[in-house]
Each structure stands twice: as structure tokens, then as C-alpha cells.
Amino acid sequence: MKPTVAEAYAACLDITRAEARNFYYGIRLLPPPKRNALSALYALARRIDDIGDGDLPLEDKRNALAGVRKDLGRLDDLDEPVYVAVADAARRYPVPLGAFEELVAGVETDLCDVRIADFDELVVYCRRVAGSVGRLCLSIFGPSTGGTDFETLALYADQLGIALQQTNILRDIREDFTNGRIYLPSDELEHFGARVALDEHGALDDPQGRLAGYIRYAAGRAQDWYSLGWRLLPYLDRRSGASCRAMSGIYHHLLRRIGANPVLVYDQRLSLSAGEKAQVALASLAGRRKSVPS
Predict the structure, then answer these.
(1) Which residue spans adopt a coiled-coil conformation according to this UniProt entry (predicted)?
(2) Beta-carbon count within 10 A of 281 CB
(3) How far apart are CA 191 and CA 185, in angstroms?
């Protein structure tokens, strides 16, 4: 039986609360209608990501992603809670459903071993898997002031998503490598004389510090992308701006720590504590980007 819209949104909120370890701190700052809608979009994006990262055989993953593409074209005919909620959100807000197809294309890149030739190729990948999410978020946030066309705001949202994905990549170098993926551009690694490899203890092997030097460089560049993306903030209403600041602020604090001390990611998956994330969220609600101890 098809769930009610309220039941569908409740299911998406449960998924978001359980799975969005960083984004939930920002999503919960939104008023209920926007919180519901953004949770629905997150739940579908999470499903797409989980297909790529799951344990299904390769061909089954490809078929599942093709199924998502098909479902996006018939949302009103589906009775699965996530799709019911996304369909309702798309009726209430200008959701760019094509952004989900971009996300699917990005996840398809992850299905096999990944090697990135240069930064231009990396930007294309980041735009697909994270810039798309930034644009989806913008469709729910909505601009509160005039003076800048929506296409420009979408560019800012896209750039902020790219900044977050660069942070993810630097945080997850070791984990990605164990899964056959190296997102650090090959030409840049060569320029720094760096390589991605593990030592006998399973940590990133960097005896001469060349990988650390590269990570500091890449973190500085990612900072520039945050600066570009944060141009969006003045155009959002208070609650939407707080949500955006909180979501991006948590990742930005991770980036600062990685840039200051790259070896933090050599043998662990770096994260902020729940208390630190709460500090960022509260400061975001107050209208500023909170600094937590590095």
C-alpha cells in the first residue's frame, strides 16, 4: 500500500537521522517543511551512494543504478516511501531532478578502479557526486533576496559541493586506496614526487613527507573553493543560511585539521566529535562560522 506523504517523510527523516552523520546537524536547523524536503533528497542521494559502496556484484550495481534512472522518470507511479517523499518535494520546490542523474553518473565512475589524470578531471567528478547535491540543497533553501540570478546561485552551490568533496577525498585517501580508488590527480602526485601506498602497518606510507606536502597544497586549494561557494550565504534566509553554514562548516573544520597536520589521515578516518559538530551548528544558527579547536 502506498504510504501517505507524512509517512514517507517520516521514513526519510529516520534515514537522515541515522545516516547523515554530518549533514543532519545542518538539516535539523531548517523549518519542518524544508527539513522534510531536504531529508527526502538526502535519502535518495544516500541510496544512490550506497549502491556504489555496497557489496552487490558489479553488474547488479549497474542494474540498480539504471533502475534509479528509470524511477526518476516515473516518480508519481511509485509507492516506495523515499520516492513518494521526493515526488512531493519536487511538487513543492524547484528540485532539479537531473542532478540525481549526475550523481548516478558519478557513482558509476566509482564502480571500478579509479585513477584521476588531472585536476580538471577531478572537478568533473566532484561536480557530479557533490556539486549535484549542492544544487539539490539550493532548490530547498531558495534565495531570499534578489539581485543575483538563480543560475549564479546554482554555480555557488555547485562550488561549495566541490569544496566538500575535495575534503572527503583528502580525509579518505587511505580508505579509498584500499578500495582501488585514487582520486588525487596523477599529474600532481608526480609533480610532488608523491605516491599512495600503505606501509606494513596498513597506514599511508610517506617516509619522505612528499604526500604530506601534497595534501597541504590540495587542502589550500580546497579552501579557495569554500570561499567561492560561501558567496551563496548572503542570498539565503536565516534558517537556510544556518543549515548551509553548519553542513559546510563541519567539513571545513576537517579540512583545516588535515591541512595543518596531514598525518592525521594516514591511519584513521578523521571526524569531529558530536560536541564539536553541535558547536558548529549552534554558531551557524547565530549567523557565523564557528571555529573549533584544531
Answers:
(1) none
(2) 23
(3) 10
Say if residue 68 is in the same domain as residue 125: no
Cα separation of 197 and 253, whole Å?
26
Q: Considering the domain boundaries, does residue 126 fall inside one? A: yes
Give bridge partners of residue 114 from the DSSP assignment.
181
**Assigned domain for 101 exists:** no
* Residue 285, pLDDT score: 72
CA proximity to 37, closest of 99, 100, 85, 78: 85
**Which phi and psi (to 5°) does residue 127 adopt?**
-65, -40
Look-up: residue for cell 542570498? Answer: 235
Residues 118, 178: one domain? yes
Q: Is 157 within a domain?
A: yes
Whether 292 shows a pLDDT value over 50: the answer reads no
pTM, two decimal places: 0.93
Q: In the block, which residue shows the cell 504510504?
A: 3
Indicate the residue type of 289. R
Q: What per-residue string of b and e applies to 174-188 under the rule 16 or more CB within 10 Å gives b?
A: bebbeeebbbbbeeb
Contacts of 54 (CB under 8 A, 6+ apart): 61
Q: Among candidates 42, 152, 150, 146, which has minimal Cα distance to 100?
A: 42
Q: Which of 148-152, 153-157, 170-174 has the lowest mean pLDDT?
A: 148-152
Domain hosting 194: range is: 113-294
Pair 27, 284: CB distance under 8 Å: no
Residues 109-146 have pLDDT tens digits of 999 999 999 999 999 999 999 999 999 999 999 886 66
Beta bridge partners of 204: 198
pLDDT digits (tens, 9 = 90+) for 5-35: 999 999 999 999 999 888 888 999 999 999 9
